[in-house]
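On clarity, I found the account of how folds are encoded harder to follow than it need be. Since the whole study asks how a given chain folds, the encoding of that fold should be made plain. The format is easy to grasp once an entry is in front of the reader. For illustration, here is how one protein appears when written out as sequence plus structure tokens.
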Amino acid sequence: MSLEPDAPAERGGHAVLLDGVVGIRIRRLQSLFGSHWQNWFRARSLAVTPVQGGVLLLIRRYPGLSQIALARRLRIEPPTLIQTLSPLIKHKLVERDRAADDGRVYELRLTRAGLEAAALVETSLPLHEADLLRFLSVEERQAFLELLDKAIAGAEAAIEGQEKAE
């Protein structure tokens, strides 16, 4: 008896791992998205992760946003945010300064290079996403985004329910 699994099912010429298991498909899409993102932006001389790109866009939209407020918006723990911010600060895309009214709070701003990087991310995103989602029609893409938002809301509610139960 072999321990090798049978070949995965195929759909549209692509392997489907554990058919019906949502989490694996979401993780696979996330992995593909991240790989495509890295290749896309490296070709444009910008080495940032998808999360870092989003952080650049948020800081550009809300200059002076505190680290705590940014962590809350992203729904991540402050130490996780520091891991994301550190390379952006090191590469002089983001600067953080103590708030004038509360020295315990760090405010975030983009440097000139950070503003340029954020502009590149923003202008490139539609092309990057169109390339990644090329097999979806305009209507399917809109439905996909709506379903993602609905799934995210459900997942957040489930986690909030777990946290309240603890």
Observations:
- Strands lie at 9-11, 14-16, 65-66, 94-98, 106-110.
